[in-house]
């Protein structure tokens, strides 16, 4: 069973999320109302997923996410941001801090449960329509610089893997990649997994961040 730590500064929100997850067969092992409590609870409980609010007093959700992902629980615990603040700046900051995805508080209960399970399985929410739209708004795919493939393990990618990498960076799902490159969905997923291993990132969200930081994609003007 997937275990979850729920983090939100509002007790009613925490209770509502707990009820949703419990009804969906997810084990809520703890709650936290501040970023500092979240960091301590994540280290003590080592949940599979931390469902993290962004706006909290003191240490906010983005800073707490960064500490959790860099701490002892970071190798096994994934952070899913649950927030009413879905503006680009918050989402990108959360992904850069180590979050594996985000979902809005207005999502349907089944979607929240599905999002938690998706993140627990090592995927990210970048294949969702909402996040894909974010990626397409935020970044612009361009012809890579000659030296853009040299750092962060990118030089180990094959030509096909580079194609797949750029498609992931543009927010494409495995199904989209398979259709565009005329390969099977299984083959597309295999390519993505090999890319993540070679460049040492844990999910698709961080492939996008790597693409942005390496200069393979740039912010839209």
What's this, in brief?
Residues 3-120 form the Response regulatory domain. The chain has 221 residues and is α/β, with parallel strands linked by helices. It folds into 2 domains: 3-122, Response regulator (Rossmann fold, 3-Layer(aba) Sandwich); 142-219, Rossmann fold.
Reconstruct the topology from this structure.
Layout: E1 3-7, H1 11-23, E2 27-32, H2 35-45, E3 49-52, H3 61-70, E4 78-83, H4 88-97, E5 101-104, H5 109-120, H6 129-138, E6 139-141, H7 159-169, H8 174-181, H9 185-199, H10 204-214, E7 217-219
Parallel strand pairs: 1-2, 1-3, 3-4, 4-5
Antiparallel strand pairs: 6-7
Helix pairs in contact: 2-3, 3-4, 7-9, 7-10, 8-9
Structural overview:
50% of the residues lie in helices and 14% in strands. The chain is α/β, with parallel strands linked by helices and 221 residues long. It has 2 domains: 3-122, 3-Layer(aba) Sandwich (Rossmann fold); 142-219, Rossmann fold (3-Layer(aba) Sandwich), CATH 3.40.50.2300. Strand 1 (3-7), helix 1 (11-23) and strand 2 form a beta-alpha-beta unit. Helix 3 (61-70) packs parallel to helix 4. The termini are far apart.
